[in-house]
């Protein structure tokens, strides 16, 4: 009898678990469809919104958008042509340098006649929730027209409305017949994806964030669009509604699903965290190189605790193999005969032979190493100890130091002479800790010799707007002598998606 009772108990527990799982999945999908009700429109009847948020959907190995993503981009371009939107915010995944959805999306749109100034890129839209949160919290958007496949729109709309982003959606239907089996798979995946959406909304998970980006509002102002009022914060009120006016049934449904076990939740990605320099991995000292110690930058341990990790360090935390991958990437390009020292040739042309050059954010020595080999006295600084060690191994004639550019104080490290030139290439300033870019530029100015110049280059859509950059240059008492859109000195225009700034002291 006991074995029979035991089997019955196990059966009851199993049935209860199965019923709970069914309630969670069913409740999540009910919330998704209720919260998105009335939000899916056609290109003909969708109301005008200043911004369309185009969600990423995969890039092929050759760098072109997947067919599903291309179909979304076609819808977005059509909305722009109809005057239904004025700006396209393309949001996708770019967590590695070999996978770049936003750039692929932009290139596709430009090749299909969309003006460059009508496209803004968000490089950290790793999933639907991240794209929606970043649209409002980073780009300051309060109302959007979502563009995706129609089966995906209910979830995207529900997320937007739950976080306070007023949204309608226009969906692609062409892929339903073009790739019926893939479409069916996508539809089926929306069922469990609704659970993840509820967990994200209820937990208010922070995506990869960073400083505010003014590109969208600036472009809209240039187009004569009146930006929507800023979004209201997303937090529940005692009335059962959110401050953004989300349907109370959505909030009740999401709250009821708080019982989802933690094991079913997607782990949060690492955020920018506080920590000491001592808790980061250290490079083994190389001949002729020194490393930064916390006592050389902070008077007390308590002060050191206030340093934010850079976004590069966060990538290493998320993927401990990231530095090794980065080193191998450039090694492979060099071995393949690719030109990887264009930035260095520009600096070499700007200064006399034997000049003192600071390679700020030196990485594995790609730029500074070349400058050392052609006769300049180079000091390189990077926050990543693995990259500093690799630079020391490859180019022992230069000096390579580990340190955060926001705390740059080379006289305290024995490098008392100022520099004739500072080069900061490879999007380094966009990998700094959020909000520290102005400090970095100020420290560049303090390390320049009279008549010296700093050259800084980085791309758009990486959390540090070009206008903010120029404002920071002026705020620290420096001037931008010249602005270019490439390292081979092509003119910089309002539609440029890269900037190379030559910075000097006034006079």
Straight-line N-to-C gap: 96 Å
> Per DSSP, what share of the residues sits in E-state strands of 2 or more residues?
5-15%
| Arithmetic mean pLDDT | 81
Number of helices: 17
How many DSSP-defined strands?
A: 13
Strand order of the largest sheet: 9-8-7-10-11-13-12
Q: Name the poorly predicted regions.
A: 229-305
Largest sheet: 7 strands, mixed
Q: Report the C-alpha radius of gyration, rounded.
A: 26 Å
Helical percentage: 25-40%
Which structural category fits the helices and strands? Answer: alpha/beta
- Overall 3D form: globular
Secondary-structure topology with pairs:
Blueprint lengths: L1 H34 L4 E2 L9 E5 L11 H16 L4 E5 L9 H11 L7 E4 L5 H10 L5 E7 L3 H10 L3 E7 L1 H5 L1 H24 L11 H8 L25 H9 L44 H4 L6 H8 L3 H14 L6 H9 L5 E5 L5 H8 L3 E6 L2 H10 L4 E4 L16 E6 L12 H10 L1 E12 L6 H10 L3 E6 L13 E7 L3
């Amino acid at each position: 009898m006991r074995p029979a009772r035991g089997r019955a108990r196990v059966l009851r527990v199993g049935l209860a678990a199965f019923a709970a799982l069914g309630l969670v999945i069913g409740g999540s999908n009910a919330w998704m469809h209720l919260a998105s009700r009335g939000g899916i429109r056609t290109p003909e009847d969708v109301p005008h919104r200043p911004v369309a948020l185009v969600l990423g959907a995969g890039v092929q190995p050759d760098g072109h958008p997947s067919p599903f993503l291309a179909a979304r981009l076609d819808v977005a371009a059509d909305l722009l042509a109809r005057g239904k939107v004025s700006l396209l915010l393309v949001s996708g995944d770019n967590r590695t340098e070999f996978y770049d959805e936003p750039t692929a999306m932009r290139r596709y749109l430009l090749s299909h006649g969309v003006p460059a100034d009508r496209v803004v890129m968000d490089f950290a839209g790793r999933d639907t929730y991240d794209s929606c949160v970043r649209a409002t919290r980073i780009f300051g958007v309060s109302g959007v027209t979502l563009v995706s496949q129609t089966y995906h729109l209910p979830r995207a709309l529900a997320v937007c409305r739950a976080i306070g982003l007023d949204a309608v959606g226009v969906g692609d239907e062409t892929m339903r017949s073009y790739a019926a089996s893939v479409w069916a798979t996508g539809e089926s995946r929306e069922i469990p994806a609704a659970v993840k959406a509820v967990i994200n909304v209820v937990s208010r998970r922070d995506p990869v964030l960073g400083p505010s980006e003014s590109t969208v509002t600036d472009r809209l102002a240039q187009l004569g669009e009146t930006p929507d009022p800023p979004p209201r914060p997303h937090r529940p009120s005692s009335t059962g509604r959110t401050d953004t006016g989300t349907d109370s049934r959505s909030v009740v449904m999401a709250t009821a699903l708080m019982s989802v076990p933690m094991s079913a939740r997607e782990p949060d990605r690492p955020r920018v965290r506080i920590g000491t320099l001592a808790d980061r991995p250290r490079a083994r000292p190389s001949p002729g190189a020194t490393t930064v110690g916390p006592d050389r930058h902070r008077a007390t341990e308590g002060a050191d605790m206030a340093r934010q990790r850079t976004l590069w360090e966060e990538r290493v935390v998320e993927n401990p193999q990231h530095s090794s991958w980065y080193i191998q990437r450039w090694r492979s390009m060099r071995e393949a005969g690719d030109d990887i020292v264009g930035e260095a040739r520009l600096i070499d042309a700007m200064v006399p032979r034997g000049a003192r050059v600071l390679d700020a954010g030196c990485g594995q020595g790609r730029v500074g190493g070349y400058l050392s080999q052609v006769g300049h006295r180079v000091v390189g600084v990077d926050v990543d100890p693995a990259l500093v060690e690799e630079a020391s191994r490859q180019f022992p004639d230069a000096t390579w130091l580990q340190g955060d550019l926001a705390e740059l104080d080379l006289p305290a490290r024995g490098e008392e002479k100022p520099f004739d030139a500072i080069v900061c290439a490879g999007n380094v300033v966009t990998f700094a800790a959020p909000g520290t870019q102005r400090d970095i530029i100020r420290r560049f100015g303090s390390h320049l010799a009279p008549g010296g110049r700093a050259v800084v280059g980085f791309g758009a859509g990486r959390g540090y707007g070009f206008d903010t950059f120029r404002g920071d240059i002026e705020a620290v008492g420096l001037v931008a002598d010249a602005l270019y859109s490439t390292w081979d000195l092509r003119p910089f225009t309002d539609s440029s998606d890269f900037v190379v700034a030559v910075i000097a002291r006034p006079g």
